[in-house]
Amino acid sequence: TRTRFTALYRMQWIGIQGAPAISTLGGAIMLKNPKLGLSFRISNNKRGFLNSSDAQVAFSYSVPLNIRTNLSFGMSAGFLANQIDFVKLGSDAVDPALLNLRNAAIPAASMGVSLKTQAGFQLGIVIPQIIRSETLDNTFLFSGTKNLILTAGFSSWNPSKKVRSFNHRRSRLKGTGSVPLEYLAILRLGEAGTQAEGLARYNFSTGFSGSLGYRTGTGFYPGIGFNKDNIKLSYFYEPGFGGKIPVATHEVSVSVLVGKERKKSPPPAHVSPTQGLKPAAQNNEVKKLKSTAKAA
Q1: What does pTM read for this prediction?
Q2: Pairing of strands 231-238, 249-258
Q3: Strand, helix or coil at 135?
Q4: Three-state DSSP state, 283
């Protein structure tokens, strides 16, 4: 069994006191059954006086609609814990609106559906927060579809195949080789507003890629990626250009694939009834088989 571990650290709005700092550790376990998926995620989001930690386990199941299209369902469950630093609150701790704040934990859950074609096109819809808390205590409610994430993308990069040229439309339609350009579009819908994001990545080689994205509210962000054997490293930088907040954000992630790849068992070999016999014995055995067949 192979497992891909991914660690991410994001430092937002450098230079602003109390700006969010997000760290995440996740893992995706490759099960023997290709239709099943199992993963986990542990994350921490520290901003100002509030420190939120959550841990979730996710399970997915894939259904083939035809030989070229798969439909996948996924759901995760876990908990979310909020810790409050009353020292950082200072004089604000006596504010009537903050008097009832306390450390608390609530359940957490999310679910999603995705459609993926063999050619590399993907569509998805995610409910990222089925359960939420509005008062930072042990009370919670089901938010349903008040928050949604819609995704659409294309990814057909396979370094083991010959890269096909974009100038040869016929080659692309046949589905041979792989395309070095990948792209992803994300639309986040929620009570806080709507946010759109687009990202394009070009794989210059099996070990190096470059990215450029745009997110409403934060602006453009370039990125680079390195890949060596089972280790992937990526870095994104948001300079604040084209966004509402002209401050920088850094994000770095490391992904490691561990474990041995499961080898497929060879099909059982056909054994002839006369295998291993000497020529004379083989002739006798063949005569017996023919006699038996005629008698039947």
Answers
A1: 0.78
A2: antiparallel
A3: coil
A4: helix
- Spatial distance between the Cα atoms of 81 and 63, rounded to a whole number of angstroms: 34
The per-residue DSSP string of 48-95 comes to TTEEEEEEEEEEEEEEEEETTEEEEEEEEEEEEEEEE-HHHHGGGGG-
Determine the length of the chain.
296
Per-residue model confidence as pLDDT tens for the chain (296 residues): 689 999 999 999 888 888 999 999 999 998 888 899 999 999 999 988 889 999 999 999 999 999 999 999 999 999 999 888 877 776 665 566 566 667 888 899 999 999 999 999 999 999 998 988 777 777 788 877 788 999 999 999 887 654 444 444 443 434 445 789 999 999 999 888 899 999 999 999 999 999 999 999 889 999 999 999 899 999 999 998 888 878 899 999 999 999 877 665 555 554 454 455 445 555 665 566 566 655 55
Amino acid occupying residue 168? H
The closest of 122, 201, 116 to 157, measured between CA atoms, is 201
78 beta partners? 56, 108
The pair of three-digit structure tokens given for residue 107, joined into one six-digit string: 């359940």
Indicate if the alpha-carbon torsion angle 175, 155, 204, 206 is positive or negative: negative
